[in-house]
Every structure is written in C-alpha cells, then in structure tokens.
C-alpha cells in the first residue's frame, strides 16, 4: 500500500501485505467480495438466521465451594486471558500463511485477510468516544463515573470536543431517519417534552425534521422551544439537563462541522420492539448512505448495528465502508437468538460477511477465548460498556488483543491507553520479540482477581 494511501487512512490504516479496495474518498478496507444484488434472506426478530441458532455451551466449574471455588474460577479466567493474549500474538504472526476459515452453512471460504486495524501512533488499541464525550444519564448521582458528561450527548459540541483529543481515534453516535427521510443524531427511540405539566412523547422516526429540531436549545438563540425530558431505567421521567447544552443535529451537519481527522462509528439505530420489513430497512439505510457518500470524503467511517438484518443489508448495499455487528455478548437474553453470545455474533459475521463485532465488554471478559475465535475468523473485535471507564479493565483487554474500546470517560481512558505497553510474555514461551514490556503490578493483579469472579458469576 502506498505511502499516500497510508497518510489518508490515518488511524484506520491496515496491514500493507493485504489486498485492499481503495475508493475515491481514500478509505480502504479488505476486499470481501459481497454478493451485490443477491436475495435478502432476513428473518423476523424471533427467528434464527441460517447457521446462527446454536448456543455456546459454557463449562461449569466444580472446584469446591465458597471462596475456594471463586479463587479457582479467578485463576482459570486469568489463565485463559493470558493464553488469549499469547495466542493472538501467534495468530497475528502467522496470519499470512494460515488457512482460510470456512463460514457457516457451507458457503465459500472467506479470503484470509486481516480486518481493518484501529489505532494510531504505534498503539494496537483505539479509543472511541461514546456519543461524543460520553452519554448522559438523567438522575445519575454526583460523582458517578458514567452518564455525567458535561456536554449533551450526540451533539456537535460533544463530538467536536472528542475530536480535540488527539488520542481519540473515532466517535460513536446513533443515527435514525425522520419521517421525511433525513438522517439525524439521537439515541432514544422516543423523544419526550412537557407542556402545561403534561408529558408528551413521540417516536423519533415519526417526526418530520423540522419538528425534531424544535426540541431543546435552538441555534443562534438561548430560547428553548420544547424542553427535553428523558425516561430513566426505572421508568421515571426527569428533566434532561447538562452543564453545557447544544442543539440537536443531523448527520450531514456532523460530517460538515466535526474535524475530518476523526473517524465515525455510525450506529444504525432500530427499535428492538418493531419487526421491520425489508423495504423499511432499505429506505432508512439508503437515506443514511446518501449523506455518507456525499460528505464523508477522506474521513474513516464504519457502521455498526444491533439489528442483524440491518447490518447484513448495509453490507449488501455498499462495499466501501466496514460493517460491524453489535452484541450484548451474552450479558442479557434477547428474543433474537443471534444476539445472545459472542459465538452467535461470530456466526452472524461469517454468514453475512461482516467485518467484525462490537461486544459488551463483560461478554468478552467472561469468555476470553472469544477473542481468539474472532481473530481466527478474521474479525475485528471492539467493546463497549461501563467497565470500559475503568482503565484497569481496558488494560486487560489491551493485553488480550482487543482492537478498540468505546468509552464515556474519554479524556481519562484515552490518556491511559496512550501510555500502555505490552507485557513481556517471553518467559512463558509466548513472546514474539525481544522487547522489554511492563508486567502486571500487584495492584493490577489484585484488580483482576476481584473483577473476574464477579463477571463469571453474574446472572443474565
């Protein structure tokens, strides 16, 4: 790959030994030869895709009771994590000579190419800002580590401030499409306001663009046309207040006003409680693609979605930008069986020819061997979740070979990741070079031993 292309790609540059598809906007990623024009075989949310219905069998530990059993589990999980880190190094070193991984359902063998690589300035982990500088959680207690971002999430203010941190490679934000076909930035399925003491809520996708933009502060004015409220997890409706507010915005505005050096992780947002027809999905995705194709230029962009069929369709509609599958990673049960474990997510990616997985971090830490399976399947693996705001938990993922983390504590975690260095694995026979690396401190080991048993024993 030429030096010119590498310069354009910035933090998303990939291994030079791979054959890439380079388009006019300078973004490149591995060729996967999607089946354009093929028949769409999506399933209803309650059904299984072909080859995606089987469950991952979890081993049960029986090494005693109480504290002894927890110590045994912690030791086994720590050993698995260490082996995962070592195994990934070996897999990376031999990627060019390893045989192709066959996908589910007897499909053709996938090309053996590494996925696009996130990270910059020599690191192997990229940091992404969650909805910009972090999500807002109304009613969060003072001093809480999650949900207390000063800026309103998913706004130009929040996304722009994330771009100001050189260590931040990309921002994640949520895109929906209004009734009149405009892609807008908003997370929740419903938007709430209050008038004369009465709370009103409307589905975001039922709004025209003009009405959507009338909520919250207005551009060029301190006047608020419609106050914004938000529903908490326990059902309460509270004022949605932030220290520094900003107006709602469209996808086009984000492309136009946020630094072009910043990568965009565009989450394709669909309501879990709705069964979408193919034409509805395609209409929304085409509207989003129209804006991306027109305004992305040289910006690194990739898509992600919890909706398996939306991810599949986005992969079929275009071959320019990578598509990743979002999954709870087994941390919660979902009626769509494709979303219930890391192994299910891997099968979805292989079946639909996706580029990788964005998993809830606890799902990966509870099942560290999934990192190796994803690598063997040529899939990039990123994580999200509250544990990503604890730098020690991020450090463990760094050692395991996770390619990127989406975080709310943007400044703190990006600074920590910038200072990470690899441990010296050569003493265990797994080192890949002679460089000296930082080992675990006693504090970090103590954190691991406390953290891992809790993750393993957590119920769905």
TrEMBL record:
Does the keyword Coiled coil belong to this entry? no
Give the catalytic activity: a sn-glycero-3-phosphodiester + H2O = an alcohol + sn-glycerol 3-phosphate + H(+)
One Pfam family, short name: GDPD
What biological-process terms (Gene Ontology) are attached? glycerol metabolic process; glycerophospholipid catabolic process
In short, the EC number is: 3.1.4.46
Q: Into which EC class is this enzyme placed?
A: hydrolase
Keyword Lyase annotated: no
Q: Which UniProt keywords apply?
A: Glycerol metabolism, Hydrolase
Q: What PROSITE patterns is this protein classified in?
A: GP_PDE
**InterPro entries listed in its UniProt record:** GDPD (IPR051578), GP_PDE_dom (IPR030395), PLC-like_Pdiesterase_TIM-brl (IPR017946)
Q: Which family does it belong to?
A: Belongs to the glycerophosphoryl diester phosphodiesterase family.
Looking at the record, the residues that make up the GP-PDE domain are 125-417
- GO function term, MF aspect, one: glycerophosphodiester phosphodiesterase activity
Q: What is the protein named?
A: glycerophosphodiester phosphodiesterase
